[in-house]
Every structure is written in C-alpha cells, then in structure tokens.
Amino acid sequence: MFLRILVFYLTTMVFSGGLDALQSAVGPDPDLIQLVQFAPALAVGVMFLLFRRSTRVLVRFTPAAEVAGRSAVMVGIVLAAMAGSIAIHAATGHSWWSGGLPFPVWAMVLTMVVGAAGEELGWRAYLQPYLQTRFSVLRSSLIVGLLWGFWHIGGFEHGPVYVGLFVVMTVGLSVVMGALLQAARGANLAIATAGHAAVNLCLFALFDEENGDEFSMAALAAVWVIAAIVTHYVYRRPRTSADAKAAALV
To answer: What is the DSSP string of 161-192?
Structure first.
C-alpha cells in the first residue's frame, strides 16, 4: 500500500512541475485555470498502466438524485463555512473582500468545475477509496487531506505558518468530503468536484488568502475544522451488529 501511495504522489508531483512549466511558457492565465490541477488525473493514468488490474476509480454520476442531493449538501456546507469565515473577519475588523472574480462568472464556474474534476479524479475518486480498503473513512480522509495540502507547494513562499494553516484547512475539507462520500455508491468524482469547485470559486470571489494573508487563512482553517467535526459526527456510520461480529472475528 505504501508503495502505491508513494508512486501516485511522486508521479503527481512530477506532472505538477511539468504543467507549471507549460503554463508559464504558453498560458493560459492562472487566474482562469491552473494546468497543475490536472496532475492528479494524469497520475491516475500512470497507476492504471502500472497496476491495471487493481486500480479502481469511482467516477459514476448516478443515481442522479443521490448525486444531486449530496452535491447540494456539499455546496451548502461550503457556503456555510465561507459565511462563517466572513463573520470572523467582520467581528475582528479585518477586511475580507478580494474585489470579486477576475473573469465573467460563467467562465469562472466552467473552469473551476473542470479544474476541480482534474484534481478530484486523483484525490477523492482514486486515492480516498484505495485508502479505505485498509483504513477507516476518517483516517483515509486525514491522510488525503495532508497529502493534498502539502501538494500545493505554491503556498510555501508565504512561510511555514501560512502553509500549516492551509494544510489544516485542506484536512478539514477532506474530512467533510470523506464523510459525504462514504455512502455515495461510487459517485465520488461528481460530489467531490461540486464541493471543490464551490470552494475555489468562493475563495476567488471573496478572500485574498492567496497573497499570504495569514489571518484569512486562519479563519478559513478554523471554520473548516468546525465543519469537519460536525460533519463527521452527523454522517458517521452507526456500528451495527454485523460490524461487531466482524470485529470479534478479527
């Protein structure tokens, strides 16, 4: 298991470097879409080549009602978390408005969805289910959140405090996604993409955290930790008699 995680993560990092270089050379504008977001999806392709028979990716978009319902819940949690962050800024007298979106809303929504799908194909459609073959949903979500957070190496230019807060935020968001996905019947990509795109769109539209504002990042980290705790306890699977028998046999 460790070998596969390592191969996937290192491959993602290699593709990330190449895509960053490509974007610097030919574009497009990174405020519209970042090519590095497709690195996890490309890494999944490598995993298919190396471990063809046992590589599993959860990309179903059905049943439609369940996908729509869970996606709506995920987006609702995102909006509630963002509102909480705004409230923290307002209560402490800190400015939070970033100036709005740099491109038309329709273009930003489209690119946010496409870019989020590129990331989530790797993080939540491949890595999360793979980890859950050995670990609990919560532990798998924590691992994915840590790897996902440290993958954003662009944040390192703002110092260790900023990076630490950013990783706390990604871990919290990962726990929320993991809790919602645990009974999604294979529709991990659709639901995770909806949540991820909503987060990215809100961050672009509202906050200025990408410029290294530690207070904004701390506020975001705090609300996502709260969201993770609440979501985990609301959606955790109750222990059944079958679970107890299985545990006794082990």
So the answer is: HHHHHHHHHHHHHHHHHHHHHTTSTT-HHHHH
pTM listed for this prediction: 0.91
Exposure string for 138-149, b = 16+ CB within 10 A, e = fewer: eebbbbbbebbb
High-pLDDT (> 90) share of the chain, %: 75
- Secondary structure letter of residue 63 according to DSSP: S
Quick one: which of 220, 180, 246 has its CA closest to 88? 220
State the Cα–Cα distance between residues 72 and 78, nearest whole angstrom: 10
Q: How many CB atoms lie within 10 A of CB 88?
A: 18
Q: List, for residues 36-77, the tens digit of each pLDDT value.
A: 999 999 999 999 999 988 899 999 888 899 899 999 999 999
Whether the pLDDT of residue 162 is over 60: the answer is yes
Residue 105: Cβ within 10 Å count? 11
- CA end-to-end span of the chain, whole Å? 20
